Amino acid sequence: MNVIAKYGKSFLGDTVNYLLGRSSHPNGYLPFQPEPVRELMNRVAGMFNRGEMEKRVNAARENASRAGFEIPRDDGFKVFPPGGLAGADELIGSITKRMETEDIAAHMANSKNPYSKDYLLMYFVDRKTLELDSPFLKLALRDDILAAVSNYFGFVPIVNYVDIWYSRPNESTQFKGSQLYHCDWEDLTKMRIFLFCNDVDGQSGPLTAISAKKSKEIRDAIDYRWGTRVGDDAINAHIKEGEAIPLAGPKGTVGFADASRCFHYGSRVQTKIRIMGMIHYITPFAFDLKRPFARLAHSGLPEMQRLALGAR
After folding, report:
1. Biggest alpha carbon distance in the chain?
2. Of 182, 256, 226, nearest to 41 (Cα)?
3. What is the CA radius of gyration of the chain?
4. Looking at 176-237, which runs of residues are DSSP E strands?
5. pLDDT band at residue 24, thresholds of 50, 70 and 90?
6. CA-to-CA distance for 42 and 30, rounded, in angstroms?
7. Whose CA is closest to 19, among 30, 8, 35?
8. What are phi and psi of 249, to 5 degrees?
9. What's the pTM?
10. 92 contacts 277 by C-beta, under 8 angstroms
11. CA-to-CA distance for 30 and 127, rounded, in angstroms?
């Protein structure tokens, strides 16, 4: 009753929408609950949307052999050196060309998105204007990549976000937001592809991640709540040297990371900028569920690609 009293009809309506697989943001309650509650709601949502899940599971099984690589579940991430993921160079080249003429100051001044940060600029890509010939979507939907990501999930996920991320040096010596350890709250499990468009080393604030298996141990030990940030000292008390792994490398490096299952931080930029392309896959029962590319899922596409675009 306390929950209903606090959130009222919006809580009830958003919870029903989530269970029916059409929520975009359950008003500040469901996403930030303890892990068992999140897992329970996810399972219940799966029961409410059994038909869609069956399609996604079957399509993943039918295309499993197309996978060009494996992302270990215990790790939750995988890194390819330059040239290690065929076809990535096309997208990296496209982003590099775009950012050579981008007016960063104007982008900062015009950015009204609440998720924009002074140390990390986002939303360079307008999802509403993308078509299937976009280098972002061509890579995200490619058989060997989509099959590998689907094998990781056990079903075909949804491509819900693509963008360019620009991390820049920040004068503040106090880390904040995503510069601190956290697990993304939007889903139980997700996958991001990061494409390095310049060299990334310790000076340019690499994404630093802890394996999914170890992250689970830490969440249990500290009673972690999604939406909160954790200082280095609290995390370091539970890991050994070498268990926090920076995803660094020269231009052309490609990293896959489950940002919901893995504790991570990034953009602790010291002297160098960091430019990355990003492709984001979520489950059909994400707490922040959007299907911006469902409009592109025409009947002439293979089933796996249609589902990945957001078809039900």
Report:
1. 56
2. 226
3. 19
4. 191-196, 207-210
5. very low
6. 10
7. 30
8. 160, 175
9. 0.92
10. yes
11. 26
